Amino acid sequence: MLQGKTIVLGVTGSIAAYKIANLTSMLTKLHADVHVLMTQNATNFINPITFETLTNHKCLVDTFDRNFNYNIEHVSLGNKADLVLVAPASANIIAKMANGIADDMLSTTLLACRCKKLVAPAMNTNMYENPITQANLQKLRDFGMEVIEPATGLLACKAVGRGKCLQRKCCFLIFYRKSSMNMIWKENGF
Prior knowledge:
Layout: E1 6-11, H1 19-29, E2 33-38, H2 48-55, H3 73-80, E3 83-89, H4 91-99, H5 105-112, E4 116-121, H6 125-129, H7 131-142, E5 146-147, E6 151-154, E7 160-164, H8 168-178, H9 182-187
Parallel strand pairs: 1-2, 1-3, 3-4, 4-5
Antiparallel strand pairs: 6-7
């Protein structure tokens, strides 16, 4: 199980944001201490209350939210995290991560985290295949982050191509395989 492990999930503005609720549930059922950070745009696709209910933690969106126990939240989560998964990762957060931009709760926390980071892009095919996005993804790989490649298929915009967020079960399995918690993967027969 994942008892004693802290996992930070970063959810960004993508129609695929709803898929991460199931992933969150799977991780909490394995006793992980899951903390969800959302970009403001993500809240247009799924309500933070969903994640708060699943994790029993406040879903953090606003860097300057004063409605919690005082500590420097992005730094304390950065120190506490054993693993970070950004999913769905929009072109915007990928660009911020690749270039060290820290202008919201998620991006500042990502800079404060020293643990392993996984990034699961999800966006329109043209955006995903854009040379700028590909260069940013390569930067993330060069910085030691792992990119979970998106699936190919029918996207929400009705285009067919690469950029589809992996189904929750696939994302969960890849998450385990790529994580530094391979012992748990083997112990649970995955």
